[in-house]
Amino acid sequence: MKRKCTDHLRTYNAGILKTEEIFQLSPAMPAMSTSTFVWTCFTDLATRKIIFDFFAKINESLKLTGWIVCNSSHDLDSAEFTLFPDMLPISPLSASNELGHQAGNFWAEDSACMSWLDKQPASSVIYVAFGSFTVFDKTQFQELALDLELTNKPFLWVVHPDLTDGSNEAYPEGFEDRIGCCGRMVGWSPQEKVLRHPSVACFISHCGWNSTTEGLSNGVPFLCWPYFADQLLNETYICDVWKVGLGFQKDENGIITEIKNKVELLLGDKDYMERLILLKERLVSGVRGDGRSNQNFSNFVDWMK
Questions:
Q1: Among 23, 129, 230, 304, who pairs with 158 as Cys (CB 3.0-4.6 Å)?
Q2: What contacts 246, CB < 8 A, 6 or more positions away?
Q3: By CB neighbour count within 10 A (0-12 exposed, 13-18 middle, 19+ buried), where does 187 fall?
Q4: What does the pLDDT average to over 223-227?
Q5: Angle at which helices 270-286 and 209-217 pack, to 10 degrees?
Q6: What's the pTM?
Q7: Distance between CA 257 and CA 68 in Å, rounded?
Q8: CA 119 vs CA 43, 154, 186, 246, 279: distances in Å
């Protein structure tokens, strides 16, 4: 296993991914594909080489550290921390952040969406957010809008300024008039507070790690729409390891069109929520008192002193 990974990295010194390999770092961890490495999402070989070299330098720097503190938990992937004992999971941080206050954001939050959520029935709202970097073409953007409309459920959709070119003009004709007060689009949201709100039923997410831990910590099931890099592996954990969400399949044109069906499947199966509640309880316990994440953090502070 280690030899194959090393051979692949040597191949990448030329900036070229010649073959796809499926591998596991540990038998207890899900399989990964070399095609999902973060640098492979760039079509330009020179850019791929730059990104690859950047991560290679990071890995070299990590050899100089005493400990690696990370935003994760033994309850999310104990096999990973058995394999890498110098990594200290001290999170999820959002599980101990009862005020839901973040230090900063890429765009100004629309806090008024919280009063809109207050008016919605419990466990009814589809929360849709794809992080800071996801970009949709106009066809997929419009399909997403129409599919949200077809769910006949209230939805809160984060449409940041560059989610798609000319996003303010990209909605299907008449869409905003038809949805009225049943849907709300915002440029950015106070996500931790949104996910903690009792009206939120599920989270259509790009599966970025921060979003993943925030959703888990607040007991919100996922509909997974990963974009690139670690988001693809995070989807595997959500759907296949923790089993607290569902993924989408693209049609023959590379477009996702099955949102209504997947929302109904997810919310109609109580097993997802039962598993999620148990996982949430373990995560919250881990950052309190003698919980493992809390103890790791205390030990790290003592080590620095």
A1: 129
A2: 222, 223, 224, 239, 262, 265, 266
A3: middle
A4: 95
A5: 100
A6: 0.88
A7: 41
A8: 45, 10, 16, 27, 29
- Give the span between the Cα atoms of 213 and 94, in whole angstroms: 7
Do 256 and 144 form a contact (C-beta atoms < 8 A)?
yes
3-state secondary structure of 250: strand
Asked whether the beta carbons of 69 and 51 are under 8 A apart, the reply is no
Pairing of strands 200-205, 222-224: parallel
**What are the tens digits of pLDDT across the range 30-70?**
998 888 888 888 888 899 899 999 999 999 998 898 889 99
What is the structure's pLDDT at 14? Answer: 45
* % of residues, the chain, pLDDT over 90: 60
| Integer CA distances (angstroms), 238 to 136, 144, 215, 244, 245, in order | 23, 21, 11, 6, 6
Give tens-digit pLDDT for 143-172. Answer: 999 999 999 999 999 998 766 655 456 889
A 10 A CB-CB count for 167 gives 18
* Structure tokens that stand for 146 in this block: 């129409």
Tokens, residue 58 = 């990071």
Sequence-separated contacts (24+) of 56-64 with Cβ below 8 Å: 56/9
DSSP 73: -
